[in-house]
Amino acid sequence: MKKILAMLLSATLIFSLAACGGAKTEEPAESADSAEAVKIGVSMPTQSLQRWNQDGTNMKASLEEAGYTVDLQYAGDNDIPTQVSQLENMISGGCKVLVVAAIDGSSLTEVLKGAKEAGIPVIAYDRLIMNSDAVSYYATFDNYKVGTLQGTYIKDALDLDNQAGPFNIELVTGAPDDNNVNFFFGGAMDVLNPYIESGKLVVKSGQTEKAQVATPNWSTEESQKRFENIITSVGYGPSGEKLDAVLCSNDSTAIGVTNALVGAGYTAENFPVITGQDCDKPAVKNMIAGLQSMSVFKDTRTLASKVVAMVDAIVKGSEPEINDTETYDNGTGIIPSYLCDPVFANIDNYKELLIDSGYYAEADLK
Length: 366
Ligand code: BGC
Fold this sequence. Notes:
Layout: H1 2-26, H2 28-36, E1 39-44, H3 50-65, E2 69-74, H4 80-92, E3 97-100, H5 109-117, E4 122-125, E5 135-141, H6 143-157, E6 167-172, H7 180-198, E7 201-202, H8 210-213, H9 220-235, E8 245-248, H10 251-263, E9 273-274, H11 281-288, E10 294-297, H12 300-315, E11 337-340, E12 343-346, H13 350-356
Parallel strand pairs: 1-2, 1-3, 3-4, 4-5, 5-11, 6-7, 6-8, 8-9
Antiparallel strand pairs: 10-12
């Protein structure tokens, strides 16, 4: 009898504890409260490009909405020592997770040793952080697909499979210390190289190697300078050597090239095909004006929400969602990644992608 009573009692206890636990986890106020105490460090490379401002703002708002405290820092204008010291402060300042968009993917190895020692997980944001085993996850867009979208756009716009050509093309990519460049440029060249090899596409400047076509810091001024030199040395111009297309890996470099072309007398009527990436406002305005053919839209709201979900999973001790375990090796092994989907934007679909979705207001593009 005693035994039965004891069994009944303990069953009741287990039942009431379970009910208690259930009530606790279902109470949203509790989880929001506990999340509020958790500080997340967000390190962005620069405020000089629109996209990073947007990334920073979206990340901060979404993390705060999820109940976190946010230490958001921009590293001046792509200043590596500033990024390193901001990260040191985040580590010593009690951040529980770091989200880092690196300026130079290979310059954070030392500082992130400190994160690892302190048990602070690091998420590489948009750009992979190289040579550091402190990186737990990587969240980005499918960077190879960005490149193939650009290459395919040029292939289709010049109708390379049906036209005899030859067509003249020049190549412009981004910062050599940004791992994404390997994927953007690699993806585009996987589409374009067969046509270069067959002679249907001709690079008159002779500059085809990644190192030759790179643009330090993705700088508009640098790409403009390089392109002015190419125009002069090859003799491109509306009444000179014909230029059919310029592969530009992103909008900031496309704008430099566009400036150089406008300076050389090109107008919307005779503009070459020019690619871009990010759908930055000045580039979309150029697109509307006929001075850039396309851009790649990477919705920073989507990336931010994926990263917030990753942070949340890490803080709560569960497994973040990933969809790629093969592509991104940072020198210490493959980093489990989540790749968002990029889409191409041009004059025909930009309204639907950018305005109807609420990314920009119509007035932003006037
Ligand atoms: C990003 C691009 C951006 C470029 C320049 C790359 O790592 O993925 O979206 O245009 O950096 O900031």
